[in-house]
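Proteins fold reproducibly. Look at a concrete instance:
___
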Amino acid sequence: MRWLAAVAAVAGMLAGLGALPQAQGAEREFYVLAVEPKGSASVKKEVFPGMRLPEGKGFETKAPDKAGNWQVSAYVFLPAQIFVRRGDDVTLHFVGINGDKHTIHIDAYKTDVFRVTRGSIQTIKFKAEKAGVFKFLCDEHPPSMRGELIVQGN
């Protein structure tokens, strides 16, 4: 699970780069990557865990092949949390890095779905008028490919 800790650390660093501005009504722009971190090992160095990961296409484990090599992967958004203030003008660029398609919606702000494919970008713009925590998720890769838009009130 070292790869999961590494993904979390990277996500935290990316979220930290987008620290909240002091003024309300700021223009906020983020690039949200649709990625698939992978980890691999050989049974000669690491025992294959053999445990089942949560159901859904968001996680994948490949059992050892004839050479003893195995792999685990997960689909995620980076960053997985986006912080803005109520009143901000928000631009989100969803960029498809891994996976052939991702059907996405954002609770309250982009309720109709949009699709991101590998090598493409979809830009969503809105004014963050409603404070709260709003989920965004990929229909193809639950349960791991989800994120939160956090809109802080005044």
Q: What stands out?
A: Confidence is low (pLDDT under 50) at residues 3-7, 14-18. The longest strand covers residues 27-35. The radius of gyration is 17 Å. Helices lie at 2-17.
